[in-house]
Design brief:
The protein is α/β, with parallel strands linked by helices and 465 residues long. 42% of the residues lie in helices and 12% in strands. It has a domain of 264 residues: Aspartate Aminotransferase, domain 2 (3-Layer(aba) Sandwich). The strands form two sheets. A seven-stranded mixed β-sheet has the order 1-7-6-5-4-2-3, with helices on both faces. A four-stranded antiparallel β-sheet has the order 8-9-11-10. It is globular, with a radius of gyration of 23 Å. The structure holds pyridoxal-5'-phosphate (PLP).
């Protein structure tokens, strides 16, 4: 045991050093691919080495190659941090090393996950009767939800997917937004439906699916249909008009699934809940713990109204029609077999923050996103392409030379983002929105403070100067 304690001590001290350096270190990784490979590659050793030396070496070879995504000034992609208890709970989850597939393999973690799932539904104001699963991320949450959807829409056409497979089945169509996340396409591919089953519906100036278009497309055929709507798209945080679209989809017998990777958490705040009006009418919802709930990677959450369809799609039980067992076996709800109890950090974060704390964190992020976008937008040769409604905003940088074209502004935008990241105070990612390059500002970290906002805007000012 001493060896284990010593290795854990080295990891603990390394973690403390890493966390305490977040304020001053570059938020962006600084090492090059070549330098990382030089340090990390090497021959597979014939003989092992001391466990503490392994951990020390791991810390050493990673130096300069880690982004400060746990910092309050990391605004790239949509990447949350980890609350103190969620991080600690994650360490315990590894230490306990339970196989959270079956209650029998990990009784306490099964009950913790069952509680965390109930709390999440409560927090998000979703129907109590829904089933859920803690997956690796929103990608697999989509897969889990859409596998259930596939089974249900085929069952309505008297086709049993579990017994008969897809060959010869009625063709399913998937109607979705032109601004969907790529994980929807991948889930559709994983499920054997093929890219051609996807139909992208145009959106209005607010990034919401056009209702008249939606209705027209739905009426084109009585094929089994799955509709995927956005609860905050990646670029501008656009919410589809759930209260109008879902009843129309239901009239046509469609299953409605929501991509709420981060936007579903708007439901936690009374001030922001209006964005999600009618979302509770859907059949399934996919979201993430590792984004706005601030639990460590990885954690996605699938929530499904038709628990029988969910269980039939996922369970290993040959008699999958049988009644649910008394204790919760995650294997009945998850695509994985052996698995980590990733609901444990969720349970911890929800206890640490409480309903009010989650709401406060969400509202703080939204406010800070506004402040950053408006602050940068006031600097010379910048334009706010999208003022945040939620926690996502877009900024473009202009080439000030006379006769500069959109191509020049695109290049300038990419150059400025690279310079900001190199400067190291803050880190942003880029995107193409309506054909224009832009810097995306995404605020989802519990740590982001007014001081981080100030430091970020000042660093951009310095770079532009
Ligand atoms: C809107 C949206 N949907 C789905 C995903 C995929 O989530 P994950 O990476 O957790 O699988 C993302 C990730 O950024 C996202 O922003």
């Amino acid at each position: 045991m001493n060896q284990t304690y010593e290795a854990l001590d080295v990891a603990f001290n390394g973690a403390k050093k890493w966390l305490s350096g977040l304020e001053d270190r570059s938020v962006s990784a600084t090492a090059t691919l070549e330098s990382l490979r030089e340090k990390i590659h090497g021959e597979l050793p014939d003989r092992g080495m001391d466990s503490t030396a392994v951990v020390e070496r791991l810390i050493d070879v990673s130096k300069g190659g880690l982004h400060g995504s746990a910092s309050g000034r990391f605004f790239a992609w949509v990447i949350g941090g980890a609350t103190p208890s969620a991080l600690a709970a994650d360490w315990l989850t590894s230490t306990w090393d339970q196989n959270a597939a079956l209650y029998a393999c990990g009784p306490a973690v099964s009950v913790i996950e069952e509680t965390a799932g109930e709390w999440i539904k409560d927090l998000l104001h979703l129907p109590e009767e829904c089933s859920f699963a803690f997956t690796t991320g929103c990608q697999l949450a989509h897969f889990t939800c859409l596998a259930s959807a596939r089974a249900a829409v085929l069952k309505a056409k008297r086709w049993n997917i579990n017994e008969d497979g897809l060959v010869g089945s009625p063709a399913i169509r998937v109607l979705t937004s032109e601004h969907r996340h790529g994980s929807v396409d991948r889930a559709v591919r994983y499920l054997g439906l093929g890219n051609k089953s996807l139909r992208a519906i145009p959106t209005d100036s607010e990034g919401r699916i056009e209702i008249s278009n939606f209705e027209a497309v739905l009426s084109e055929s009585d094929q089994p249909t799955i509709v995927v709507l956005n609860a905050a798209d990646l670029n501008i945080g656009a919410f589809d008009a759930f209260d109008e679209l879902i009843p129309i989809a239901k009239q046509h017998g469609a299953w409605v699934h929501i991509d709420g990777a981060f936007g579903l958490f708007a439901r936690v705040s009374e001030k922001l809940r209006h964005h999600t009006k009618g979302i509770e009418l859907a059949d399934s919802w996919a979201t993430d713990g590792h984004k706005w709930l601030n639990v460590p990677f990885d954690c996605g959450i699938a929530i499904i109204r038709d628990r029988q369809a969910h269980r039939e799609a996922m369970t290993i039980s040959a008699s999958y029609i049988a009644a649910e067992s008394q204790a919760r076996d995650q294997i009945d709800w998850n695509p994985e077999w052996s698995r980590r109890a990733r609901g444990v950090p969720v349970y911890a974060a929800l206890q640490e923050l409480g309903r009010e704390g989650v709401a406060a964190m969400i509202e703080r992020c939204v406010q800070h996103c506004h402040e950053i976008v408006l602050g940068i937008g006031k600097l010379p040769n910048t334009k706010i392409l999208w003022e945040p409604q939620l926690n996502q905003g877009l900024i473009r940088f202009f080439d000030a030379s006379p006769n500069a074209t959109e191509t020049d502004h695109n290049r300038r935008t990419d150059e400025v983002i690279a310079e900001i990241n190199k400067e190291g105070t803050a880190f942003f990612s880029s995107t193409t929105w309506r054909g224009l390059r832009a810097m995306r500002v995404s605020v989802v970290n519990w740590r982001t403070s007014a001081n981080d906002v100030h430091r970020t805007v000042e660093s951009v000012r310095k770079v532009l100067r």
